[in-house]
Amino acid sequence: MAVDRGGKWVFAANYNSGSVAMFPVHPDGTLGEATGFVQHAGSSVNAQRQSGPHAHSANLSPDGRWLLVPDLGLDQILSYRVDAVKGALSAGDPPFTKVAPGSGPRHLAFGRDGRFAYAINELLATVTVFRYNSARGSLEELQTAPVTPDGYTGPKSSAEIAVDPNGKFLYGSNRGDSTIAVFRIDGDKGTLTAVERVPTQGKTPRNFAIDPSGAFLFAANQDSGNVVVFSIDRATGRLGPAGSVLEVASPVCVVFAAAR
To answer: Which domain CATH number covers 25?
Structure first.
């Protein structure tokens, strides 16, 4: 899900059906019926996981004018123009960007200045770097980097991706070996350089989140039932144990809320 900056619209990606919907938010916080809806169609090369569309996440562009939707089943990132007056979604030109066959794009993160976007690919455990065109809502592939180390033969199942608030480092999780990969971002080119891969001290990091200050990373280990807190070295991006482990049954998402 994604919510626009004004809090007036909610966008949802539906994995099983492979569709995207747009809902108005009423003044009392309740949702109205969907005003925008798009059904994806097609398939890709992995017969087990890609026999049909699987829209995996809804991601608003930094200016809120475009909605980018990685579809795991199609090996595409689809682009929709957002009409915040009519509550409608319309296909961009081009309507989608392809990634390597069998990649399974899952989640997306924008760089700090909005010039680059990063997609984590679940099935091949890779991160694809794009140059983002804000006028057209389009993506141009620049690089694909592995989340797993050279020679890795274990299960590949990447999940979450995030850029630190300063825009210097990118983080991506692999549920296959329960690690988080750390990359340095080239500020001019947007490309990635591997820094390290860190075990999450648990099993199956389906999600992680960086706190708003950029000082800590919270890794949610779904199958071991814990959220492990890591400190982030501001200079190198490296992760170190912060000494805090939260016991939570099957954690799958960490979200920070403003203090009141």
So the answer is: 2.130.10.10
Nearest-10 Cα torsion for 34, 36, 42, 44:
-90
- 227 found inside a domain: yes
Per the DSSP assignment, residues forming a β-bridge with 198 are 180
Does 44 share its domain with 166? Answer: no
Instruction: Decide: pTM greater than 0.90.
Output: yes
Residues 220, 223, 226, 230: is their CA dihedral positive or negative? negative
Domain extent, residue 208, equals 159-260
Q: CA-to-CA distance for 122 and 128, rounded, in angstroms?
A: 11
Cβ proximity of 71 and 77 under 8 Å: yes
User: Does position 160 have pLDDT exceeding 90, yes or no?
Assistant: yes
Q: How confident is the model at residue 258 (pLDDT cuts 50, 70, 90)?
A: confident
Share of the chain above pLDDT 70, in %: 100
CA distance 150 to 162: 22
Same domain (yes/no): 106, 3: yes
Are 117 and 195 part of one and the same domain? no
Average pLDDT, the chain: 97
Q: Strands, DSSP E only, in the chain?
A: 2-3, 9-14, 19-24, 36-39, 59-60, 66-71, 76-83, 88-98, 105-110, 116-121, 126-133, 138-146, 158-163, 169-174, 179-185, 192-199, 205-210, 216-221, 226-232, 239-247
Same-domain pairing of 178 and 214: yes
Question: For residue 154, is it within any domain?
Answer: no
Phi first, then psi: give them for residue 71, nearest 5 degrees.
-115, 110
**Does residue 56 sit in helix, strand or coil?**
coil
